[in-house]
């Protein structure tokens, strides 16, 4: 554990322009624990404003190639771009994403591009929370645009992508079983559908099916549809324009502010729930928990009453800890 002062010093280095310090801070976010909490506190005074774009879709849809081509397109417009490649399935080796980084080689060494693979190795709030912390690191360090790519369309990936300002869902002609299985979730989070590899057969049928699915599942939102061939750079100008249009519309309508507030509520709830579960596990492993479990087993106490007593004991112990620290009874707004 680095300690609060060390984390704060590392934040100062990162804000001052050290790319290695930025990378180390993202590793801190991945690990979680007290240092991740110290990191959030150290980032609070930092002033930065970034816009985030999530890129999700089934494996093989060409997300990494698209992310690379989109980065090139955005840079052509004068943007500085940071890319987080997130893999929930590789908490130790992160092999899948590291393999995909071969497609990002053209940007390595570019001072206006920052690329980092990441996975959750213990963050209390899970991978989505770790990614949000990493995004705040990049925001504090002056990266105005953050692309967040996921490896698939499972629930963890949808949670990560959904915690961004604009969500791109990448698919290919023919869709695929995995995309069909997650259609409801994709319709819920997608702001722009990208039909990549649009030079393949079946493009027209895929677009018709997608338009029908949007009409049935998301008629009010009407996500845009953009066709690209990322390997050739085709359609990237239209994709950049679609992202800009969604950003402008979301900002003007107040949707962006609402989405960010909802994201804060989700982060707060997830982290609070995780902390409560940790505290509850500790309570259950202690003498009081053992006594309650024994009483339930011997049928001396019903399970609901035992659970209520456990919660009451947990709240009382937390209140006593707060009093011993001198915590205020009520936060000022």
Textual characterization of the structure:
With 333 residues, the protein is of the alpha/beta class. It has 2 domains: 47-253, P-loop containing nucleotide triphosphate hydrolases (Rossmann fold, 3-Layer(aba) Sandwich); 265-319, no CATH class. 57% of the residues lie in helices and 12% in strands. It has 14 helices and 7 strands. The chain has helices at 4-15, 19-31, 33-43, 63-76, 95-100, 126-140, 155-162, 177-181, 183-189, 203-217, 236-253, 255-285, 287-297, 303-325; strands at 51-57, 81-86, 113-118, 145-150, 166-171, 192-195, 224-227. It has a 7-stranded parallel beta sheet, with helices on both faces. β6, α10 (203-217) and β7 (224-227) form a beta-alpha-beta unit. The radius of gyration is 23 Å and the shape is globular. The protein starts with a helix and ends in an 8-residue tail after the last helix. Residues 91-99 and 328-333 have low confidence and may be disordered.
């Amino acid at each position: 554990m680095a300690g609060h002062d060390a984390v704060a010093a590392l934040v100062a280095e990162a804000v001052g322009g050290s790319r290695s310090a930025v990378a180390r801070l993202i590793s801190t976010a991945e690990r979680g624990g007290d240092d991740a909490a110290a990191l959030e506190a150290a980032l609070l005074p930092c002033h930065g404003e970034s816009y985030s774009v999530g890129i999700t879709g089934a494996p093989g849809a060409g997300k990494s190639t698209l992310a690379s081509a989109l980065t090139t397109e955005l840079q052509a417009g004068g943007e500085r771009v940071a890319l987080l490649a997130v893999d929930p399935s590789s908490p130790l080796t992160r092999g899948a994403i590291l393999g995909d980084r071969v497609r990002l080689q053209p940007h390595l060494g570019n001072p206006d591009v920052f690329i980092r693979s990441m996975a959750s190795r213990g963050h209390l709030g899970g991978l989505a929370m770790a990614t949000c912390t990493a995004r705040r690191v990049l925001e504090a360090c002056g990266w105005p645009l953050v692309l967040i790519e996921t490896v698939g369309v499972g629930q963890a990936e949808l949670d990560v992508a959904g915690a961004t300002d604009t969500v791109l869902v990448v698919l290919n002609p023919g869709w695929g079983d995995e995309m069909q299985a997650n259609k409801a979730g994709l319709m819920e989070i997608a702001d722009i559908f990208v039909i990549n590899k649009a030079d393949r057969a079946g493009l027209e049928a895929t677009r018709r099916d997608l338009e029908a699915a949007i009409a049935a599942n998301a008629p009010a939102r009407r996500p845009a549809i953009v066709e690209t061939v990322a390997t050739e750079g085709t359609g990237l100008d239209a994709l950049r324009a679609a992202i800009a249009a969604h950003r402008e519309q979301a900002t003007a309508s107040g949707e962006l502010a609402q989405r960010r507030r909802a994201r804060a509520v989700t982060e707060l709830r997830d982290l609070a729930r995780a902390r409560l579960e940790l505290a509850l596990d500790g309570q259950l492993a202690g003498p009081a928990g053992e006594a309650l479990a024994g009483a339930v087993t011997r049928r001396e106490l019903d399970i609901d009453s035992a659970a209520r007593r456990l919660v009451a004991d947990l709240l009382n112990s937390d209140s006593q800890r707060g009093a011993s620290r001198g915590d205020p009874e009520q936060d000022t707004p």
